[in-house]
Amino acid sequence: MIGGPFFVLVVVGILGTGLMAGVFCAFSTFVMRGLAALPPAQGVAAMNAINVAAVRTAFMTVFTGSAVLSAMIAVVTFVVWPGEGKLELLLGSALYLFGSFGLTVVANVPRNDRLARLTPGAPEAAAYWPTYVREWTFWNHVRAVAAGAAALVYVLALT
């Protein structure tokens, strides 16, 4: 069984990935639906404001901290190679690092950057808004599932 400081590391990893799953789920299930219901100019302006507000200490600490914890769990697993739970620990780390953190970098952030370059009331923004909502939300669903699955398999590693 996993114990000592490694146990604490995994528990904190569970909390971080679980919190991120909740954030992603909230965005997919009601924030994006609410924004999509707004006129495009208002939706674009609101999402741009959210994207600026997200890059603050509270969110970034949990988001990037969970990535750092996942990487640390993977490294410690390789170095210590615990008798039980090693597959779950490595899978949980991969799920968060690639399925949540990595997808953010390659799928969601580029869409956010493109949206930020548009003037909310411009025809280009109105034309892009439905595509943005659909694509961004799809990838956010994937991030939510990956973060939730990471938390779950971390829990399984401890059982």
Automatic annotation (TrEMBL):
Keywords: Membrane, Transmembrane, Transmembrane helix. The chain crosses the membrane at residues 6-32, 53-81, 87-109. This is DUF1772 domain-containing protein. It comes from Streptomyces yokosukanensis.
